[in-house]
Fold Cobalamin biosynthesis protein CbiG.
Amino acid sequence: MNLPIKPVIRIVALTEAGHRLALHLQSQLEDAQVSYKPQPFKETVQQFFEQGERLIFICATGIVMRSLAPVIQDKYLDPPVLVLDELGQFVIPLLSGHEGGANDWAVNIAALLDAQPVITTAKPYLKPLYTVGMGCERNCPEEELEKLLLSCLEQTGLTLEQIDSISSIDIKADEVGLIRLAQKLNKPYQTWDKHQLGTVENLLSTKSDYIFKTVGVYGVAESAALYTAQQATGETAELLLNKHKTSKATCAIARSYPR
C-alpha cells in the first residue's frame, strides 16, 4: 500500500484583513490553499470538510458551526477545524480537538503567529507527551521508515522535537532500520514483549487477527505507542494518530498527560 495522501490545509477568509492573514499563514505552511469569500459559501466549505481537508477559518465561530453542522459526523472521523480572529491573536480548535489533532495543531499555528491558543477540552493546562510506535518487515530500509514517520508527523502537525521516543515489539529489538532511525533522530528506542503490549489492547483503533497469530498482539505500532506513553507518564494514553502503513512498515502516534 502506498503512503496516505496528505490532507490539504484550506484557509478560508471572509474579510480583507482575514485574507491578508490567510496569505501570511499560507506562506508558512506546506500544502496550504487560500479560499477568499468562496461562493456559495455553505456548500463550498461543506465540500472541503467532506473531502477531509484540514480547515482554518478566519471568521466568527458561529458562521463556521452553522455552515458545517449538517455534515459533522463525529470526533473520530471529522477533519480538524480551527477558527482564527482576523487579527491573528487567537486560535480556537473548534472540531476534532483530541482525536483529530486540532488541539495540537492549534498550538503549532499559534506559535507561527505568536498568537494565543484557546483550548477548552480536557487537560488543556498539561503538556502532553508524544510517543511513536512502529512495526515493519524484517530488514525494512531506514529510509522507508523515516519517510513514513515524517508523513505521520505532518498529518498531526507535530515536529520531531515533540516526539519523546520510538518503540516497537521485542522481536524488533535488533531491527537495524528502526535502531538507525532512532539514532539518526536522537530518540530513545525501546521494545516491549507481547504481554506488556497486550495490556493496551482495549485502546487500539483496529485489531488484526493475522498480526495476533504472527506476533501475539493485535497491532504492533499502536500497542507500542500507547504502552510507551503510559509507562512514561503513569497515566492512560490515547491514540493521536491511528496506524498508518506502507507495504513494509506501520506507524502510530500516542500521547499521555503527565500527572
